[in-house]
Fold each of these.
Amino acid sequence: MRPEPGQVLHFSEDPTITRFVPHVAATAQQPEAYVWAVDHTRAPDYWFPRQCPRGMAWVTETTTGEDRERIIGAGCGDRVHAIEFGWLEAMRTVRLYAYRLPADRFVPFGGGGPESHAHVATAPVTPLGPPEPVGDLLQLHAEAGIQLRLLPNLWPFWDAVVASTVGFSGIRLHNALPRR
């Protein structure tokens, strides 16, 4: 489930949204109101239940061979997503929807270029059509060649990731189990 050219996606468990209005998210680190969306590269970051804590890591041009093997794993592709065992059932059963939105209403957020982790709009946006069921999230990961790692606790993995040379993103980490 990825956007087509000229589109960005917004993922939601709510299939009834007819218009996206800018708002300040509860977890926002900035005061501006936005409509949030993601592009082709960052869409897999949202193949999860909304509240699911996840740590994601991928190979970049500056990733060392040692970090690639240690974090991603030998022969395991270029990307890994990690969640805690307690979220597996939600991964299997959540009904997630993708809204296709016109990309020309959005600007990159988070550094621009490859550092951008999202796209934002400051005016209301109407979806290009009805929301599409995303389907089996485990299958999406498999088809994209992204390993999905199940862990008893996310923090040891996350600490290793942020101290390495891989690219990374963490979402909803405040929902992870406490550090051991």
Amino acid sequence: MPLLHSPFAQLDLIRQPELPNEPLQAFDAADEYLLSYLAEQQPASATRVLVLNDSFGALAASLEGHVQVTSSGDSALGALALQQNLLRNGKAFDAVALVPASQVSDGPFDRVLIRAPKTLALLEEQLIRLQGQLAPGTEVIAAAMVKHLPRAAGELLERYIGPMHASLAVKKARLLIATLADRPPAVSPYPTRYRLDTPAIELLNHANVFCREGLDIGTRAFLPHLPQNLGSAHVADLGCGNGVLAIASALQNPEARYTLVDESYMAVQSAAENWQAALGERAVTIRPGDGLADQAPQSLDVVLCNPPFHQQQVVGDFLAWRMFQQAREALVVGGALYIVGNRHLGYHSKLARLFRGVEQVAATPKFVILKARK
């Protein structure tokens, strides 16, 4: 893989999850542009820099040792990638302060570097949280590849930070540069909430939760077909989002034990708050992480999963395939993985390569619900 060359460092970087023969690199021209722009300002070693949404640690790992850098984002995989890339380049894995997006970073900061996220709600929430966290005259610089940079990103910078201008495009990347100015105090519109009729619950959703405004149609197809009569089974909701699958299942299975996992810190935060609202103090494990990578082998009876089909702007089934493999490792012999997926994704044949038996539980014109038994 090519090295990232910048005025700050030359780094060998990997993505997370690590895949054999990975065709994609862990940085792009927008990372290079941001680092070059900052280097032109010749920041002092005491300069406090906040990096937001650094997909695989390219920015923070480059800046480590040159400025006082804090990295914050909503991806547990992104945090893992930063730690692995620090180690890979001869630095301490904890050399950069990491702050999950579910928490507020501790300013004041002299510069903020942002990789514009796919979800504009996340960007809006992050900009609102910068109130009171910026030194006078601070620049907030957002970067993205031009094809992934919506006009609304610049509008958000203008609204919450100050006057903004766009750079020229370099290698198909662009910077949006805003300078802190007086702005009226903003109240965050997040989290949002919506209600379900079956089960009769209200679901809270922090800014980066998938389908924040209402139940996604895949989950809606899945809910009527969740497994019944689970007794004291240990059930995992893999990629739990706001926790709706696990909560609906738990309401039907009062003796079952549940583990909810998602790589989004805001999803985990939402799921924890929703679980408590629906189920009170009932025992549960809810954690951020790399799927079931940290789950003990043969420790689960049932896995529920509505798998993702993209990582940031990269579309594909590699994350789903990895989740299926993790589920197989974590399930007891005879345990089952239940998934919902678009018909055209062909999950039945993929699951058949890993599991002893695969059956269709139900179907709609767009989705299939499958049960794969180990």
Amino acid sequence: MHRTPRRLAAAAAALALGAALTACAGQSGTSAPSAPVTTEAASDVAGHNDADTVFAQMMIVHHEGAIEMAALAVERASDPEVVALAERIEAAQAPEIALMSGWLEARGEDVSPRGHEGMDHDGMQMEGMEHGEAMGVLDDLDGDAFDQRFLELMIAHHEGAVVMSEAQLEDGENPDALELARTIIDDQTTEIAEMQGMLTGS
């Protein structure tokens, strides 16, 4: 997809993806209602642009989709290696959701959905399917068939996260958000190779 449509799609997504943010935003390690913003969050507020905000909003929802798929795999997969991979995905992406939620909360962003549901965004589909469709496909499978389809769809899901992170590296400015984008690219590219190996038996 060309650069301009990607930016337009991402901008359209900005307000559509906020429902999940508030639930995760309080994981800063303090229970005080009026606790000051952490140093990391304060740094983020000091230097960011719209691309940084959209990246966090979209990636939170993207990560939540991966965690939902992974949770189903922990219950349903027959291969212990697939179960272990799914558990690692959950463990890695939940803290990243909390981190990005903290950034957005510190910025005071309006993250309520505003009627952009169903739009096509870079990285948000798997093999042309929305998340709900992909979950429906997985829910109908068991055993080896489930394992294979989960790996195929999670590869596509990870590839989407890489696309979104590459867009952040092009357009973002906040050092923390750029660092997270690089981490996502590195970690998920490694997992893509691992899942491809599982599919081919190598």
Amino acid sequence: MSPYLAAEDLSMFGRDPWWLVLIKAVFCFAFLMVTVLFSIVWERKVVAWMQLRIGPNRHGPWGMLQSLADGIKLMLKEDLIVKRADKVVYVLAPIVAAIPAFMAIAVIPFGPAGNEISIFGQRTTMQLTDLPIAMLYILAVASVGIYGIVLAGWSSGSTYPLLGGLRSCAQMISYEIAMGAAFASVFLYSGSMSTSTIVEQQQDRWYIILLPVSFILYIVTMVGETNRAPFDMPESEGDLVGGFNTEYSSIKFAMFMLAEYVNMVTVSAVSATLFLGGWRAPWPISGFWEGANHGWWPMLWFTVKVQLLLFFFIWLRGTLPRVRYDQLMKLGWKVLIPVSVTWLMLVATVRTLRNENYDFADIALYVGGGVLVLLLLSFVVDMFRDRGKQAEAPAEPPGFDPMAGGFPVPPLPGQELPPVPRRRPRRDRELIVSGAPDTQSDGSLDGKEASDD
């Protein structure tokens, strides 16, 4: 086996008694719920601060109980089911969206696997469980959650929810590919898909330093995965009223909102685990304090990293406007996927050369030469392609009729609106005496009527 492959030892998992497994599962659920309640208030406070407003300040100290009050209000509101809805799917859709959001936290490590803690006299790890394919498990449950949004849009029996569900489906397909490629780069460096092993492999250097492009790719894709601004096209209020959850109210709407924020916490936890050292203390602290990564302290560092990533979500929402849907698809298919696949090939090349015991200078020379050759080939191809386009006679663009379908529609890229008819210049109009007919502008009072007089 290659010396760069990690030796997985997952024997410490699966030995807990049933009551301890139940306690750890309840803790994971409580961690997500408390983090969601805090994140909602924090988002409203931060956005209010950005917009020079006060934000929530009535319920609880500093308004910290505002999200709890909103949740109680939603549960007490009237639950409506529209007539045209498929009632079974309509009711199950929020459940399908919410349950997978909680499942990914089961394989996230809150502390080192080798540093067991004591709970009621029982030694256990600070992780519910781990799998040799834990990251594939996370990708699987994240993909299942999208079915809740698609089914909600279809079962509502309305146009706008259906469009929102279809947008979410297309968005998920375009971003899951780039996300998987970003994960694959981490797998190549760590030699494992186990979350605890990936964190252990970041003992000397976090993967955000070794794989910065993978980190940026995952940050972009996780925003699209959670349908958050500026990629919140499935529920864009500007053109889809509310998107897939337009026809939902009361507890069903609350479950969709809960699923969104739980997904935010989950993808932030995955990002911290893969690229930010997971539960490990940052360098200035771990450098002079040996006990920073022992006991209950790792949970603190992990929580701080998750909160910083949640602040990034809030910062984006308060800063960037929503993009157009064609821009969203162009970013996913024409930018993220090619960049992620190219970066994955570079990472695989570097790892192969390292396994063959090449020096760093030789690796940099080979990889840099390959990149220069690709850039040169792309330049030559673009140059000949531009010459071919210039040789062709420019074709007339097809005419665009905004009222062709019976109602006004905006032009697509490359189409232009016809010129707007203007009134004749003011100097061409004669002075009309008050009470006299304007024979030049009024078609009904033409020369015929004048002759009748």
